[in-house]
Amino acid sequence: MRISNYLKPKSLDEAYTELISHGNNAVIGGGAYLKLGNRKINKAIDPYDLNLNYIKEQDNFVEIGAMTTLREIEESKALKNNFGGLISKVSSIIMGVQLRNVATIGGTIGGRYGFSDLLTALIALDTKVFLYNRGEISLEDFIALPQIPRDIITKVIINKKNCKTSFKDLRNTATDFSIVNVAVCNTNNNFKIVIGARPGVAKATCKSMEIIKDLHVPEERINNLCDSVVDEFSFGSDLRGSKEYRKEVAKVLVKRAVMEVL
Questions:
Q1: Would you give the DSSP letter of residue 177?
Q2: CA-based torsion, 79, 83, 84, 87: positive or negative
Q3: For residue 121, which of 205, 182, 57 has the smallest C-alpha distance?
C-alpha cells in the first residue's frame, strides 16, 4: 500500500468532499486490513477526529460508531448482554489483541472482506449500515452492491430481538483467518443461516428460514435439511482449502450451530 497524502478532516462534510474529489482517495478505518493490499492511495482520509467511536444501547437497538475498534466491541457490556453475546464473542476470536485494538467495525464492513468473521455474525442479525451520503441500507443489501460505494460509513445499528445465536468456524490456528465460518440466528423458530470465508464474502440463505421451522423432527431429518442449506452456497478454493473441503466442513458447522440454537 502506498499513500501520497494524508488528511484528518474536521467534519464529515469535509471528509466526503475530499473522498469524491479524486478516484484514488480513500477513507481509512483502523487501516489493519487495508495494508494487506497493494493499492496506491492518492489521499488517505482519517476519520479519527469525527467522533465516530462509541457504542450506545437504546431500548430497541444498539448503535455502534464506525470507528469503534473490535477490541471495544469485544469488551462492550451492551453487546455482551444482547444477541446472545454473538458480536462480542466473535470479535474476541479475531486474530490477536493487537489487531483488534486497531481494526474498526466501519473498516471491516466497508472492505467487504471475504475472510471476515464479524461480517458473518452481523449479517445473521438485523443490521443496518448508515452512509453519510446514501443514508440507511441493510447490511445484506450493502454487501450485495455491485461495487463498494464512494461513501463514508458513519454508524451501524443492530435491532434488538429475542433470539438464540451461534457461531462456528474452522481455522488452522487461533490467530489465522477462518477457512470457513457459520453464524445462525433463531428468532421464534425462524432460522437465518450465514456462511462466510467461502472464501467469498459472507452470505445468508433465504431457504433456511423456510425449511427448518418444524423443530419436531428427528435429528437425521435436521441433518438432511442442513445439508440442503449448504448446497445453496457456492464455494471456492485458495491456499487455506479447496472448495470441496470447505463445503464438507460447512455442512458440519451448520449442523452444530443449528443444534445449538434449537
A1: P
A2: negative
A3: 182
Number of domains the chain contains: 3
Q: What pairing do the DSSP bridges indicate for beta strands 127-131 and 153-159?
A: antiparallel
pTM given for the model: 0.93
Residue 33 sits in the same domain as residue 92: no
Are 169 and 146 contained in the same domain? no
- Give every CB contact of residue 42 below 8 A, 6+ residues apart in sequence: 4, 5, 22, 23, 24, 25
The percent of residues in the chain predicted with pLDDT above 70, rounded, is 94
Query: Count of residues for the chain?
Result: 262
Q: Quick one: cell of 175?
A: 490467530
Q: pLDDT category, 1, cuts 50, 70, 90?
A: confident
What is the distance between the alpha carbons of residues 120 and 87, in angstroms, rounded to a whole number?
Answer: 10
Closest among 97, 83, 73 to 126, alpha carbons compared: 83
Distance CA 90, CA 170 (A): 13
Cα gap 67→28, rounded to integer Å: 10
Give residue 166's pLDDT band: very low, low, confident or very high (50, 70, 90).
very high
pLDDT at 207 over 70: no
Contact by Cβ (8 Å): 156, 105: yes
**Arithmetic mean of pLDDT, 229-253:** 94
CATH code for the domain of 184: 3.30.390.50
Q: Which CATH number is 78's domain given?
A: 3.30.465.10
Domain that holds residue 28: 2-49
Across the chain, mean pLDDT equals 92
- Asked whether residue 190 falls in the same domain as residue 249, the answer is yes
